[in-house]
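Researcher: First entry.
Model:
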Amino acid sequence: MIPDVPAKLHLVGIGGSGMSQLARLLISFGYKVSGSDREETPVLESLRRLGASVHIGHDVSNLPVDCDCVIASAAITKDNVEIQEAVRRTIPCLTYAQSLGHLMRTRTGIAISGTHGKSTTSSMVAKILVDAYLQPSFVIGAECEQLSGVKQRASSPLFVVEACEYAGSFLNLCPRLAAITNIEPDHLDYYGTTKALVESFSKFASLLPYDGLLVYNGDCVATKSVSLKARCKTISFGKRATADYRINETETGGCTKFTLRFANRTIRISLLVDGVHNIYNAACAFAIAHSLGINPSHIRASLESFKGVKRRIEVILDSPVTVIDDYAHHPTEIRAVITAVNNRYRNRRITYIFQAHQNNRLQSFFGGFVDALSGAQKVIVAPIYSVREPHLRTHLLPAALATTLESRGVEALHFETFESLASHLYSSVAEGDVFCFMGAGNLWRIAYAFKAYVTERMPLKRRISSAIRRVQIV
């Protein structure tokens, strides 16, 4: 169990997307939080400003003398020196998922699961609850600026959590209300087969009590099969006529609009976020909020002012070129991003920079990645992010991906180093171009470095060109 406030908690891998959000929650609850991670990031600095003591690198000296509990990221193994020291000192140790489960036991847990859309849907739900003055607490694996200033109270009865399926993590939760946005093959390095993955979701659905609620995507065969095994009430969303919350009359490209039909009512919703995938996310969030008794008009207003989450088609620079940072690392996500970006910037030259997340995923879904990326004008394949597979020769598959894309008529390049990739970007950029960086690894660093380069250099180039033209006129 997580001890009572004001206990001292130490988070190993505190800089991860979920762990950093958990740290913020624990600090707001009144806990004294310390932690460690491999390298410095803006996230760690933001945690320090909130009062956390954060160390770079893992060392036994990082653990406070009077530490009450250690929480470890899913990326941290048992041979980590801080975990070993905690065991030696008989300090209770929890995984990230276990800690969420402990926090959920005394609250009404709302767990959002699924292969895609978890972070966005969780953020939509949390924002709707905040806007309805229900004061939820939440831990979501992506940052939403509209939620960043929200005061979270330990006394809040509602707890919204992004429920990750990797390694069965979501089975540590005890939700009263759960959602499954969709199920597709993923994390096969752990599950081995799609059947085993779907069975894990079935176990997740069985966690719900008899008086609980499961919200599921009625257009997804796998989620529908899982819903049949739930012992509680279920409601569906999707385009099928049988959906309890039916999506109709969709519009994308410059604007994202849809009609939602439910309980003999019809409501029209206009979103600020792009893409058909976000229509599904919004429909899921709407169904959850409505089941909690929130007025449909209030739900619509909250969804229509939702600005998205970081790294989800996030425009980090709009001029003189457009730079987009996105977390997409699965073929379905990549296809959705490319469709949305192509629709938004129809008359612009668009370059997609893609970084595969783990060699195993690229190998397992190679054909899917080829199909998804074939919708692009130009693709640059970056070095693989492969922290769990450091021994593999990770340059072979990216090169093969670029070659295969070229055979499909896509202008495709592969670079074995970030230095050579960045050099190509710097030399080829032109005003008005669009660059979309996609990946769950460290490609975001290149995106921000490129943003800095463009911001500093391109205005200078324009001034020099203008000066040369004036000299020529004279």
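Researcher: Second entry.
Model:
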Amino acid sequence: MNLPKGAKGGTVTFLGRTYPGFVTGGLLNVYVGIDMDTDPGAHPIKYDFGVDSGAREITVKTKLFDTERLTVASKYTDLDEATQARVSAETERLTLIWAETSPQRLWNKSFVKPALGPNGSPFGLRRFFNGQPRSPHSGLDIKAPEGSEVYASNAGKVVLAGELFFTGNTVIVDHGFGLYTLYAHLQRVDVAEGDEIERSQRLGLVGQTGRVTGPHLHWAAKLGGARVDPATLPGVLL
């Protein structure tokens, strides 16, 4: 968006969430996350430059996702009481992580694919595990041999590095401005929470920990709390 005279920055508000922007060449750049389950149709987006404000509309189009049926160990579909308590605690922890982000943009280069290999299961698949419906596939699977290196798709700060029940050994990187990337099912984690990392820095190795049917990297992204397709990130400066 073109900055009006006297404006030094601004924000936009969409679906109840306010997003900061950064200025380049007289333009305010703001990236808004649209979750896969957002209702299609026209939605208002409000902008505020301090010296001027207003609203426009964004039209969200309908998208149909394929279905995938997988067979996994029964412990991942029939949770006992202790496991359910663990999953609930991990979900709460993740909710807190997604809610807080660096107010600064921590990257200044284009995003890159975090592992070498062809793409597997795409973003948005409606999934059934052992015949039971579960949450849609929130990321992109990259087919890579076990032990292959996994790299940060861009610079940021590690906000989680550890084992989770469903995603196994997991790393989450905060890139600032509400943008996160997640790397799951790792064989090994090579970074620690609080580390400030650079683009293409090694995070760990491809594995098959957590709820999987074989070795691969599950790569996911969140922007402003919305689940977004990480396949849209590489090559984009954002």
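Model: Note on the second entry: Residues 81-99 form the longest helix (19 residues).
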